[in-house]
Amino acid sequence: MTIKEMQERKKELGLTYAQIAERSGLPVGTVQKVLGGITLTPRYDTIMALESVLGEEQPVAVRESARPYNVKKQGEYTLEDYYQYPDDIRVELIDGVIYYMSSPTSAH
User: Fold this and answer.
1) Phi, psi (5° rounding) for residue 10?
2) 3-54 has which fold?
3) What's the rounded mean pLDDT across residues 44-57?
4) Do residues 59 and 50 touch, judged by C-beta distance below 8 A?
5) pTM exceeds 0.85
6) What is the pLDDT of residue 20?
7) In whole angstroms, how large is the CA radius of gyration of the chain?
8) What is the DSSP code string of 45-76?
9) Domain locations in the chain?
């Protein structure tokens, strides 16, 4: 876990420096210097102590993937994706973007 990840995790958990210091057994000043970026190369033991407090609690199998459901972004679609649509749904594929060709819903 990097220092940047630890800073983000601290915000997620809503912990103060004092709470992290108490749980990790480190002095408050050390926690402030490491997470504040003042100490650029902290000792291995210090990193491990901080990681024990700020580390991920959920196992990898429980966490949600970075891209849920493996959904593509517009611009990433291919002919394979285009051919997966049923015949009754009208779509066009232009430059990797799927355009739905549905009828207007309101009177013109």
Assistant:
1) -60, -45
2) 434 Repressor (Amino-terminal Domain) (1.10.260)
3) 87
4) no
5) no
6) 92
7) 24
8) HHHHHHHHHHS--S-TTTSPPSSGGGPPPTT-
9) 3-54, 70-100
